[in-house]
């Protein structure tokens, strides 16, 4: 019954591109392989690497103006927002558009737009446990992280750890940033962290947003009302 299990993934078996919406609805997250073609992964990796090598990335913050000391205690990575200046970016955005449409069709989330940035974690880089949106206050609904690192091993660490909830140390999954892996999770509901990496770690983080958080549907409401276990 199990498909190929990646040696550096612990948690449920990685999903193919057919059954991820059900996993996302049931678990609040999904780890997906094979959605982004190999050659596009290579082009995205090359672009991220070139930006890194030519110093085009900015040190990431956590949104508190001028408090850089706090920033570097919480996260240490460098980012560059997509600006649609390459075919790799627009090809990736096109795939994320199919994700958006699938989620809206199957899970009724009313996702409206998407924003993404390249991220590089250099050796020692990390991002402490957090959620990507605070309930009710932001309009990020669904988070995506895509990885472009070949031959990642458990010793390299830099794992994305997904926690069951805010209170516990119980983890739902530990995902290593292996080439071609895409993770989707609910931005408000899934606490997660990036453990320190020992290698340069290349990724694309992105967020699907709704227009107005107040009136947008939520997955919890939808599944309760419909009574479906999706
Ligand atoms: C983020 C984040 C996870 C990862 O950028 O908010 O949690 O695995 N990234 O890079
Ligand atoms: Mn995050």
Quick tags:
single chain, 230 residues, 7-stranded antiparallel sheet, alpha+beta, disordered C terminus, 5-stranded antiparallel sheet, globular, disordered N terminus, binds manganese (II) ion, binds N-oxalylglycine, Jelly Rolls
Give structural notes.
With 230 residues, this protein is an alpha+beta fold. It has a single domain, classed as Jelly Rolls, CATH 2.60.120. The chain is built from 5 helices and 12 strands. It has helices spanning 20-27, 38-53, 68-74, 87-107, 219-226; strands spanning 9-10, 29-33, 58-59, 78-81, 113-121, 127-130, 140-147, 160-163, 171-175, 181-186, 192-194, 201-209. A 7-stranded antiparallel beta sheet has the order 2-10-7-12-5-4-3. A hairpin with a 7-residue loop joins strand 8 and strand 9 (171-175). Helix 2 (38-53) crosses helix 4. The radius of gyration is 17 Å and the shape is globular. Residues 1-7 and 220-230 have low confidence and may be disordered. Bound molecules: N-oxalylglycine and manganese (II) ion.
| Biggest sheet overview | 7 strands, antiparallel
Fraction of residues in helix: 25-40%
CATH topology: Jelly Rolls
CATH class: Mainly Beta
Q: What average pLDDT do the residues reach?
A: 86
The CATH architecture name reads Sandwich
Tertiary shape: globular
- In percent, how much strand structure appears in the residues? 25-35%
How do the SSEs run, as a string of H and E?
EHEHEHEHEEEEEEEEH
Poorly predicted parts? 1-7, 220-230
Number of separate domains: 1
Number of helices: 5
Q: What is the fourth-level CATH superfamily?
A: q2cbj1_9rhob like domain
Distance between the termini: 20 Å
Q: In which order are the strands of the major sheet placed?
A: 2-10-7-12-5-4-3
The radius of gyration computed from the alpha-carbon positions, rounded to a whole number of angstroms, is 17 Å
Bound molecules: N-oxalylglycine, manganese (II) ion
| Count of strand segments | 12
Helix and strand content put the structural class at: alpha+beta
């Amino acid at each position: 019954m199990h498909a190929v299990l990646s040696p550096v993934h612990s948690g449920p078996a990685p999903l193919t591109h057919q059954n991820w919406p059900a996993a996302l609805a049931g678990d609040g997250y999904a780890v997906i392989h094979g959605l982004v073609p190999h050659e596009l992964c290579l082009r995205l990796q090359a672009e991220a690497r070139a930006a890194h090598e030519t110093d085009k990335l900015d040190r990431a913050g956590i949104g508190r103006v001028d408090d850089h000391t706090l920033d570097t205690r919480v996260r240490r990575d460098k980012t560059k927002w997509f600006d649609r200046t390459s075919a790799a970016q627009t090809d990736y955005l096109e795939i994320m558009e199919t994700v958006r449409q699938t989620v809206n069709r199957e899970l009724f989330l009313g996702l409206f737009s998407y924003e993404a940035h390249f991220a590089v974690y250099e050796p020692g880089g990390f991002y402490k446990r957090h959620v990507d949106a605070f309930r009710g206050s932001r309009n990020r609904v669904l988070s995506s992280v895509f990885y472009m690192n070949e031959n990642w091993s458990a010793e390299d660490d830099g794992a994305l750890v997904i926690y069951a909830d805010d209170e516990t140390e119980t983890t739902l999954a530990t995902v290593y940033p292996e080439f071609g892996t895409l993770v989707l999770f609910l931005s408000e509901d899934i606490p997660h962290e990036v453990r320190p990496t020992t290698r340069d770690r290349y990724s694309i983080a992105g967020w699907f947003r709704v227009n107005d958080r107040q009136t947008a549907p939520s997955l919890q409401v939808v599944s309760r009302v419909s009574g479906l276990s999706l």
